[in-house]
Amino acid sequence: MNRKQLSFALMLSMMPLASMAHTPLCSCYDNGDGTVLCEGGFSDGSSAAGVELAVVDADGNKLLDGAMNEDSEFEFDKPAGDYKVQFNAGPGHLVEISSEDITE
């Protein structure tokens, strides 16, 4: 195997690592006072500040939207009924959390 082939093989073997290095993470918690706090980030430790977050009802209608603050947090008033939190870090990087999974 010549140097060019070896370099190409090495580059190909590292591609799966690069695609997994920036996995979005988001967790939401019911504060018990009528509000919900969501915290976000990435698997490589980078901040989620500015990442879009939306809350949608069971029919997919947007109830509210905003962005993670400088501490990678987003707090909102808990809606009535079933809803989902959508942490949208870009194409292929959407994390959805159902209201039934948000506990105190």
From TrEMBL:
Residues 1-21 form the signal peptide. Keywords: Signal. The keyword Signal applies. This is SD-repeat containing protein B domain-containing protein.
